[in-house]
Amino acid sequence: MNPTYDFAGQVAFVTGAGSGMGLATARAFARSGAAVALTDVDEAALDTAAEHLAADGHRVLALTCDVSDEEQVAAAVDRTVETFGRLDMAYNNAGIQIPPVDAAEEGAEQFDRVHGVNLRGVWACMKHELRHMRARGSGAIVNCSSLGGLVGLPGRASYHATKHGVIGLTGSAALEYAPRGIRINAVCPGTIDTPMVSDMIAKGELDRAEAEANQPINRLGTAEEIAQAVLWLCSPGAAFVVGVALPVDGGYVAQ
Ligand code: NAP
User: Fold this and answer.
1) Residue 255 domain-assigned (yes or no)
2) Residue of 14, 15, 42 to mutate, ligand 1, most atoms within 8 A of C-beta
3) I need a labelling partner for 238 at 20 to 30 A (CA). Which of 37, 137, 179, 228 fits?
4) How far is CA 61 from the centre of its chain?
């Protein structure tokens, strides 16, 4: 059974909310009473997600937004505040995976692309969310890192660099803003059963049985399990939790 949270009267902003962990988290925020701004670069997936939540009676706003474009991020955050009147919680989740590559062979274009979304995107979201939250002196931000932010893996240097970077951004900004009433943390998912991972398995870039065996709990995680960690980090139950990079990985990094 999942714990329940009461976020009635609060407003959440979620990036990459059309799929996977972003969708599960947007849904969990909505079911906990928050008004939710769902943002994604995939307009069709975003609209479907928002329509389903609205049909269930939730207050939602769908905003097409590419997180690698700071202007789009600023506009989406501003629209959220214009529409709902405030911003209390954010899950900066949008990210992409790239094909594994020998570290001596990777092109700069791929390095820039993955950094543009996974690291610059989180930077831009956090920056514009903080501009609203600091005016109120309260808020909670969760950034999406990965087990890849805590360990290295052959063939994955650029992706893992972005996720290590997210932890650096999180820790430094958390120290800056904790005295101003805003808590910033990161979540580090293990291998989670989402469309991103299905795609890697389909392309032969990841072996499902191996991925399951690599997590001591012997299975992949679910998007809902990450959503639960994000909601807890945003909740009053985590009022004393600041600047952590929380592994939610079935034990992967404990090995
Ligand atoms: P997912 O199912 O692919 O969902 C990610 C969503 O973000 C998709 O709708 C995607 O749209 C969207 N997106 C991609 N680029 C974007 C951009 N520039 N601006 C806005 N939205 C964008 O992925 P997921 O597995 O839920 O992953 C979510 C986050 O968790 C990512 O940051 C990922 O790196 C991280 N993560 C995943 C795992 C895992 O095992 N799944 C583990 C650790 C960390 P498109 O479909 O059009 O690209």
Assistant:
1) no
2) 42
3) 37
4) 18
